[in-house]
User: Which sequence fits this backbone?
């Protein structure tokens, strides 16, 4: 069974994309090289990362960080797992500011972890992208996009294209000078030429979409 190395050669990715898609290549040269993400080399805990992803959903970074801090204080740990989350009841989570839906999602995550249903970081190294997605999307509150972000920014998988991401779609539309962003299906077809570096293409599409927003009002993109 092949093992998947975390991260990829961004120089090779740049050269490949610039060669196979001249329109995207023009934007890439304008923006400049995007280097490897340092998170590709850092160990991380998938269960803890998923728990934090649940808590951060639909909240500003500051508000979510405050809630996470309260939960950590209540359970006496910075590690969000079935054993530590078991130290607090649902009422306690609500008192920390965790919504009812997120409480149910955390409980489902914890239950699945206790059953051994969540792949470890070591196990993920032997799984392809779709296998990881299939393993994680059954968790309440975890959708395909959330797993794709983990694949891209934490596992450093080189060939992930989040076709439902509005920023990626908007950037693709700008590259092609289209009046509207492509549909997810159209983007999937459009992105076939970017393989095996669709992750790197996505990083540029986000930058391209942000360039239009920044022309109106300054914004910052942060992928955690």
Assistant:
């Amino acid at each position: 069974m092949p093992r998947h190395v975390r991260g990829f050669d961004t120089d090779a990715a740049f050269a490949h994309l610039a060669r196979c898609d001249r329109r995207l290549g023009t934007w890439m040269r304008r923006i400049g090289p995007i280097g490897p993400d340092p998170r590709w080399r850092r160990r991380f805990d998938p269960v803890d990362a998923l728990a934090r992803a649940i808590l951060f959903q639909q909240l500003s970074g500051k508000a979510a960080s405050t809630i996470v801090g309260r939960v950590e204080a209540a359970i006496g740990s910075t590690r969000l797992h079935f054993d530590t989350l078991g130290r607090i009841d649902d009422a306690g989570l609500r008192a920390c500011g965790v919504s009812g839906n997120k409480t149910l999602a955390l409980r489902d995550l914890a239950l699945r972890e206790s059953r051994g249903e969540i792949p470890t970081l070591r196990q993920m190294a032997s799984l392809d992208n779709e296998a990881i997605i299939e393993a994680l999307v059954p968790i309440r509150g975890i959708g395909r996009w959330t797993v794709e972000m983990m694949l891209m920014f934490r596992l450093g998988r080189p060939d992930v294209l989040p076709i439902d991401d509005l920023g990626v779609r908007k950037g693709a539309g700008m590259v092609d000078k289209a009046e509207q962003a492509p549909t997810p299906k159209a983007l999937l077809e459009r992105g076939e030429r970017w393989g095996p570096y669709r992750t790197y293409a996505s990083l540029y599409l986000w930058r391209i979409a942000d360039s239009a927003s920044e022309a109106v009002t300054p914004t910052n993109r942060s992928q955690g």
Q: What stands out?
A: Residues 216-224 have pLDDT under 50 and may be disordered. Residues 15 and 179 are 28 Å apart (CA to CA).
